[in-house]
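User: Hi! Is it possible to get a structure for several chains at once, not just one? Here's what I have:
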Amino acid sequence: MSTWVARRVGQALLTFFIAATLAFFLMRLTPGDPLAGLTEDRPIPPADLAAIRERYGIDQPLLTQFARFLSGVARGDLGASIAYNGRPVTDLILAHLPPTLLLGGTALLLNFLLGIAIGVFQARRPGSGVDRTLTVISLGAYATPSFWLGLVLAWAFGTELRWLPVAFMNEPYLVGAPWYDRAADTLRHLILPAGTLALVTFGATARYQRATMREALALECIRTARTKGLPERLVLWRHAWRNALGPMLALFGLWLPLLVAGSVFVEQVFAWPGLGSLSAEAIANRDYPLIMGATMLVTGAVVAGSLLADLLHHWADPRLRAT
Amino acid sequence: MRTSWQTIWSDRGGRLGIILLALFLLITLLAPAVLPDPRTMPDIAGGALLPPSPAHLLGTDHYSRDVLARLVAGARVSLAVAMGAVLISVTLGAAVGLVAGYLGGAIDAILMRLVDAALAIPRLFLLLLMVAIMEHIPLGVLILVIGATGWFGTSRLVRAEVMRLRTLDFVRAAEALGATRRGVVARHLLPNVAGPLAAATTLAVGDVILLEAGLSFLGLGVQPPTPSWGGMILDSKPFLVYAPWTSLPPGLAIVLTVLAVNLVGEALAQDSAGARP
Amino acid sequence: MSALLEVGELRVSFPGSRGRVVPVDGVSFTLSRGETLALVGESGAGKSLTSLALLRLVPPPGRIDPGAALRLDGTDLLGLEGEALRRIRGRRIAMVFQDPMTSLNPVLTIGDQISETIRAHFRLPAREARRRAESLLTEVGLGDSTDRYGSYPHQLSGGMRQRVMLAIALAAEPDLLIADEPTSALDVTVQAQILELLDRLKAARAMAVLLITHDLGIVAGRADRVAVMYAGRIVEEAPVDRLFAQPAHPYTKGLLASLPRLRGPRKPLGAIPGSVPVPGQWPVGCRFHPRCPQAMPRCLTEPPVVPLAAGHSMRCWLGVKES
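Assistant: Yes, the chains can be modeled jointly so their relative placement is included. Here is the combined structure:
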């Protein structure tokens, strides 16, 4: 088992570095001036431009730049931000990571709670009117652009009803207030962005849970469980759902990147100070080292999530655990 | 043998999807005849942000343009982008998948390593890497770029199907009888891959519509003044509170269109899963 | 001995493209305490559906048609719902299925699968349930190893899994055990072991057993009475010795003739020409007449059930004396 794990980890690392290579060359080979962000709004004398190029190492041959980039990624050094005057990208990303983790984590939790509940509910009455309606609702929610939904919800609950705040993570006037007040305030601010993100993503989870649960309920061992006289509740969860758990855990691992990708859109709409907002800013500023850094992070998250999905799936099924 | 249309129609969800799409198609084709030109700005000062009225069924935006007309024009753009990009993705994906699945060996290993790596980068970021530093993004380039980033999943799908089919007797029989590789691919593999491929393609259209809308919202997609749904949402952001008719229609249009497309895709997917040889 | 189980005119039907299909068509029999009744027939005769009907587990969209009588110790089983029905399953009537691999839940330990049955019917603390489960494992011959309780189904051989199924079935101390082809999926040598185990367990608990099988060979010496089923109906019923010595129905005779014999003169293996009709395409009148070597013009009408001797009856015109 441990050799299998070691092999998968090795594969994951390889995939990550190939992806980094791909990303680097993709960025460099597309037309455009890396310093466009700086020169966009104001003209800069050529001598200064040359100095800036040297500072960021853009004047080096492509392969040299690539080597530096790759070794940097391996060390955790993602270069320097152009828009932020040379501040290390890694620092910027780490500073903005916690809010995104909070948003992504909450959204992920809501996504799965909602998705599992609806999926199981549907699987018990397939083909019924409720089932079909929920399918349309799930697909409809998934078809909704997150940024638009965010705007609409912000307008409805924030501006019109005034129930919830629509921007940032905290109210500025609470600086210095006791931690529980600030925590409660953060939670209030979390509701709309996390809710938006969960609403546009739960559809996929619900569909998948419905399918896996239907398969599980059709297993022969479910008939045995009923024959034994077990309460329906046990049959459903302990027997059927437990069999569908493996694939669901795998799905969870695949959704894990949501934690860090959060959403560029949702964070921008709600001015949530996380990685998404940082990325949106980097896009606006054409700050390519920062965009690259963010890309590396989310790519790493995808690879890690995929690996975790594999491991969890294996762990959940006793038949696979032995191998 | 049922045709695809019958397959989709017999599924309740698929039926709804087709009806919605037909409706949209109808509106898209007929509406320009009766609606004002989306580019006209009759009265910039007095005609901006007017609520819905018989003259302007969905009101006007901040440039006094008829919202419904822009919506319909935007539909054409969004759908053109989606279809164009998906065409590129599916062609590339099927080609790579067929080669990898049928030839196997080192070629397969290398191709799939690359595909895995590309899949690891979230598509949005992949696109950002390519367009972020571009000065100006022509529509053609946009379609190309979106298409070029969407074929990885399809190639895995096709590859898996081909590898499965390769081991089935009827393929082996054809090979034993001396069929050329190209012949086997064309006559035996492609038709059987068509089913799951059709489902995946349909769902891909929905994904691209959402992706293009998102890019346009970030200012990186369809460039103004060309109308697009995402762009309309971006433009109307400051006016959401007092002129919701500028913001709600494009979003709803996206939801309904992608929903319809997904319903059709689901119907195809369910059917192809059941009818595999 | 009082009748434990009374089955009268049991009919199970399914919706079909051309009207309803009735795979179990008017089955009646009784079973007394401590008695073993063998229900014999080829596959497709409707034996398994009959047994599922006894537990009200007919898979939808099938249903038990009205007009049937189903009584356990006087209690009308057809009138029970919900919790009352659940208390019958496992506790009064238990069932063992043919394929122990698919009938056991792969993600739960075999010990847990036994314990949960106990706890579903008796209010016991977990430790006590476990103790009982372990003693059951010993009783079925799996008590040799201490970590049997925590093993998973895939870690056991076919014979061992069937022993586990028996342990599960006995966990709630039922009065009636239905064994549906308990040995058909096992190797021949293991078959004998399992059947012997079944005998021992039955004797120890004075349980009634409904043994369902297509193999007449395992019936001799094990059952008290035999009911032969063909095309949804019971065509002959007799005490076991009488059935083997003096089979009356042509189908029974055909079945016995097709059993290979170790001793006696070497003869070609007897076979019944034709094949078992499919439910929905039953022949008119006596359902066996197309394959019967003694068919008469009368057979085109439904034959009555004719009593032949004490406890011996058959459904055939041959038993009706011309007056």
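Chain A touches chain B through 55 residues (CB under 8 Å). Residues 141 and 200 of chain A are 5 Å apart (CA to CA).

User: Great, thank you!
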